[in-house]
Fold these 2 entries.
Entry 1:
Amino acid sequence: MRSILAALAVTTALTLPGIAMARPVTLTTTLKNYGGNGAYLAIYVTDPKGAYAGSLWMAGTKSKYYGHLSDWYRATGGNTAEINGITGASVGAGRRLAITLDLADALFDAGYTLHVDAAVEDMRDSPNEIAVPLTAKGAGQPVQGRRYIANFSYGM
């Protein structure tokens, strides 16, 4: 379990040889034209029991808005140490975010779920907007979001 958490904590710079085999995975999120400011997105993983396993990416750098990513915030207590080194700008309406990171092979087909929480200033929060099982078969299969995300997919 520790090796999996370590693999999750370090994303694009995962270079911990011997701890776990990992593969590059591209996460692509396309936002709807919802007519608001840039969206904050928290991308994280839960284990087969639904417990928080680690953060993969945070789009949006102002920590005062992280509380609006309510499922992620509840799981982490808003601990910004969970996202150090894995943040980028918020994502504008109609824009696309594509990030490539290394994920441990042990996360696939083992009951882990990838989640995306979304929030936009002065608009409703959207916790758990995306929840997809991490499976090899699910790679490349787009999933629609509930409020701000037009579609999300991961590719290996």
Entry 2:
Amino acid sequence: MRDALVLSSHSGTPMYAQIVEQVVAKVMAGEWPSGHPLPSIRELASASRVSVITVKRAYLELERAGVIVTQQGKGSFVADQPDASRAVLMDTFRTQLAELVTTARTLGLEPQDVLTQVEEALSHPSDSP
């Protein structure tokens, strides 16, 4: 199923955040264009084996970010604003960067050590660690 999302209970990322990330990824990749209908909250909860509350939280976050719009009685759809997905990704990036800085400080790494490792990671193809 093309609209299927793959959620992992073993991931350190909360389920609602996995839903947000995967919807944003599909929108950014053009797989789900503007106006594309999202699975209903109940359908996605059932297919993903998560609670309705989890999916509802993800959809609310996506709505707040402007990635999707929900029309009462009709469902949720990808919004017309393509930049909204970028805003969600930037928010995710900033959160992960803050976590990186916290971990670097915990390890006692110097700023130059962190920069060197980031530059090294950026020089690798995107699918390499």
